[in-house]
Amino acid sequence: MTDEMLALANENKRKAGADKRRIFERGNRAYSACLTISVDVIISNCVINLSADKDRVLREAFRVLKPGGRLAVFRRP
Fold first, then answer.
1. 3-class DSSP state for residue 43?
2. pLDDT in tens, 41-75
3. Total Cβ atoms within 10 A of residue 31
4. DSSP 21
5. Contact assessment for residue 51 and residue 29, using Cβ atoms and an 8 Å cutoff
6. Are 58 and 31 in contact (CB under 8 A)?
7. CA angle at residue 54 from 47 to 41, to 5 degrees?
8. DSSP 8-state symbol, 8
9. 20 to 30 A from 33, CA-CA: which of 14, 62, 63, 65?
10. For residues 12 and 29, what is the distance between their CA atoms, to the nearest angstrom?
11. 3-state class (DSSP) for residue 71
């Protein structure tokens, strides 16, 4: 996620009136900053493919997901 993408996501969140619990995070997916919280939804633009350790990335994603949480991975055609 670029700085511009992050700024746009936060601006759209503000315009939509979304509450402050909605967080957009940029970082290393193999080790998330979400150490003590859990999340409802993870959305990836398929950068998982760039990781040398895809299993670790997915384990980390499922570690922070709440029970019943969703993981969505999109790829560009």
1. strand
2. 888 877 788 788 889 888 888 888 899 999 998 87
3. 11
4. T
5. yes
6. no
7. 60
8. H
9. 14
10. 23
11. strand
